[in-house]
Specification:
Distance between the termini: 14 Å
CATH superfamily: nmb1532 protein domain like
Helix content: 55-70%
CATH architecture: Up-down Bundle
Shape: globular
Radius of gyration: 18 Å
Order of helices and strands: EHHHHEHHH
CATH topology: Four Helix Bundle (Hemerythrin (Met), subunit A)
Mean pLDDT: 84
Number of helices: 7
CATH class: Mainly Alpha
Strand content: under 5%
Largest sheet: 2 strands, parallel
Low-confidence stretches: 6-28, 30-40
Number of domains: 1
Length: 223
């Protein structure tokens, strides 16, 4: 497997390091604060957030290798970005939008949270699309500076982490408090239940190498 697109060129390092990922204790404390009334869907959102953070940590590590003029595993990064910009943007975020919109109908003060979440989802979609575009150009043998990929990747990672933090602090406790089991059933009916192609029981073909890396069966490149 070729580990770097031929047209990604060196152009220095990025000065600002990415933020550290949320530690397991803080995520567990969020679950504890939500309590027994969370409902399966809030817990499901938190579980998907944990998976997203795992992917961002992998992306951050590969981008750090690129910034140090080492050879990152670009195909793996491309697979991670593909998952985030296809599955998460289209399915995870859509269900969150549906949940907060329904909650805002019950509690009008949540309209501001609904607007903030929708704006953040749009920003994440735009920023992830820009990163995907750079990587896609590189794999199509169009010239792309290494620094462009590092800058765009770290901007995306930071934005998405900030978004996850916002939802876990301001959105999920409200959803747990406001939405009923019937509401969650309505959300399920409206958006359907889509099998996760990376973390689900059946792994999609393009994600198998990424899944193996996340499970530790494929070591990171040492180059």
């Amino acid at each position: 497997m070729v580990n770097t697109p031929n047209m990604i060129q060196d152009a220095g390092e990025l000065e600002t390091p990415p933020r550290e990922p949320m530690d397991a204790y803080r995520l567990e404390s969020v679950v504890r604060e939500l309590g027994r009334g969370t409902g399966a869907n809030v817990g499901f959102f938190l579980s998907e957030h944990s998976n997203i953070r795992r992917l961002l940590s992998l992306i951050d590590a590969e981008l750090s290798r690129a910034a140090r003029q080492q050879t990152p595993d670009y195909p793996l990064v491309l697979s991670a970005i593909h998952y985030l910009t296809r599955f998460i943007d289209n399915f995870h975020h859509a269900r969150e939008d549906g949940a907060v919109e329904l909650a805002a109908l019950r509690v009008p003060r949540l309209a501001a949270v609904a607007d903030a979440v929708a704006d953040q989802h749009e920003s994440v979609l735009f920023t992830g699309g820009a990163l995907w575009g750079l990587l896609d150009r590189a794999f199509a043998d169009q010239p792309v500076l290494r620094s462009q990929v590092v800058d765009a990747g770290r901007a995306y990672s930071q934005l998405l982490r900030q978004h996850l933090d916002y939802e876990e602090e301001f959105l999920f406790p409200e959803l747990a408090e406001v939405l009923t089991p019937d509401d969650w059933a309505t959300i399920d009916a409206n958006f359907g239940l889509i099998s996760d192609p990376l973390f689900g029981p059946v792994v999609g073909e393009r994600y198998r190498q990424l899944r193996a890396r996340l499970q530790g069966s494929v070591p990171p490149s040492s180059r």
